[in-house]
Design brief:
Blueprint (H helix, E strand, L loop, with lengths): L3 H17 L1 E4 L2 E7 L5 E7 L3 E7 L2 H9 L7 E6 L10 E4 L2 E12 L8 E10 L5
Antiparallel strand pairs: 1-4, 2-3, 4-5, 5-8, 6-7, 7-8
Organism: Treponema phagedenis
Protein name: Phage head-tail adapter protein
Amino acid sequence: MVSEFDISALRKDTEAIIAINPYDVEITRREETEDGYGNIKKIDTVLPKQRMRIAELSHKETERLKQEGVFKNHGVNITALHDADIKKGDKFTFLGNRYKVVFMRAITIGGYEKENGYKLSGHAEELEEES
């Protein structure tokens, strides 16, 4: 049985990991809405900055993963707080380059319910062109 203390401790550990090398990210999220006439309207929303840790993969590692077909472009790994607002498709700028989130997963303990989450972990790939 996992206690609230265990989850709280893991969340504090995540905060400490992020604090070692934090980066405040401004996320752009594209949402699509229909206008009632069958037209799709794309709206970009800029979310408030969120603090997370972004770890670059080495270019050598990225090249290997690209050759294996795992990734298409240079990538970064993301660690964020359990309640961060970041999801697949979101875009952000890191060290002057634009990235698009490929996936984000809630890391949980003692079950998959939201209250059991203690961090978000994911991956983003560098965009060759802004789309």
